[in-house]
Amino acid sequence: MATCEIDADVLQVFKKFKMAKDPKPSALIFRIDKDAHRFVIADEIIDISLEKLQEELSTSTPRYIVYVTKYTHQDGRISYPIVFIYYMPKGISPALAMTYSANKEKLFRALELGTPWISYIWKQ
To answer: What residues does the ADF-H domain cover (predicted)?
Structure first.
């Protein structure tokens, strides 16, 4: 099973997405190009709720999603947390599931999103 590469242009699109001024709830959706062994951007959706995003996702294809939304803290501060979502629908081929599973942390680290919480828990 090959690991995937991430091109500079994909990272550039992510950086622009991440640095948007006063962003609306938005999703940047990644997929794997199996032939080229590369991460590619499948879609960018602006102004979408998590509920609507869930309806938009295919039930037959895994995806990696970066979601950003506005969050107002109790003290009035505003932040824009970025969430990495690994979407794996039931019933897909084992080979496809393994490819996506094997590459999720590589994409997460390439996007420099921090420490995956699951890895953090395992290290304790």
So the answer is: 1-124
